[in-house]
Amino acid sequence: EEDLILSRIRVGEKVSQLHTQRMHRDGRLLDIAVTVSPVRDATGTIVGASKIARHIGPMLQNQQRLRESEERLRMLADNISQFAWIAGPDGRVVWYNKRWHDYTGLGVADMQIGGRGQVMHPDHIDRVVKEFARCIASGDDWEDTFPLRSKDGEYRWFLSRAQAIRDDNGQIVWWFGTNTDNTEQREQAY
């Protein structure tokens, strides 16, 4: 590493955030981020190098914990029985779980280009869209029941809900929604 660093410094390059390991005096290996910059004299000639080394072990551990937490959340979201989705404050969906994709065959990009018309039953779409828009505007929780079309063309009934997620100032930052298949319950009731 030092040969690489010195060769870059000799030509005037800065070496930024080189991640490496260094031996502590007690024998432990520490994760370090090194930044090395050329030092120039008044004429611009490189006369030395300035090195800053920071211990980044705790930061790397936090990043690993965050990746593991995200993986557990993704595993949970993709394996619950409901479809789950997240929308921005304007109601535009930015994420669907795997169950949604497995059922509809559609992802976020597909849904943003006319997807509602591909999955919602035409007899219900105007009513559902209007009521969801009202809840987006008011910040009220949303609940409705309507049929959704599978990628195979079959319609099943779903109890659909969305709840506003707010920041510390009470502003809506996300909507978290689910769709729960309730076809059998509806058929038993009728």
Structure, described:
The structure is a single chain. A hairpin with a 5-residue loop joins strand 4 (83-87) and strand 5. A five-stranded antiparallel β-sheet has the order 5-4-8-7-6, with helices on both faces. It has a three-stranded antiparallel β-sheet with strand order 1-2-3. It starts with a helix and ends with a helix. The protein has helices at residues 2-10, 57-79, 98-104, 108-112, 115-119, 125-138, 183-189, and strands at 15-23, 29-40, 46-55, 83-87, 93-96, 142-149, 155-166, 172-181. By secondary structure, it is α+β, with helices and mostly antiparallel strands. The chain contains seven helices and eight strands, in the order αβββαββααααβββα.
List the helices and strands and how they pair.
Elements: H1 2-10, E1 15-23, E2 29-40, E3 46-55, H2 57-79, E4 83-87, E5 93-96, H3 98-104, H4 108-112, H5 115-119, H6 125-138, E6 142-149, E7 155-166, E8 172-181, H7 183-189
Antiparallel strand pairs: 1-2, 2-3, 4-5, 4-8, 6-7, 7-8
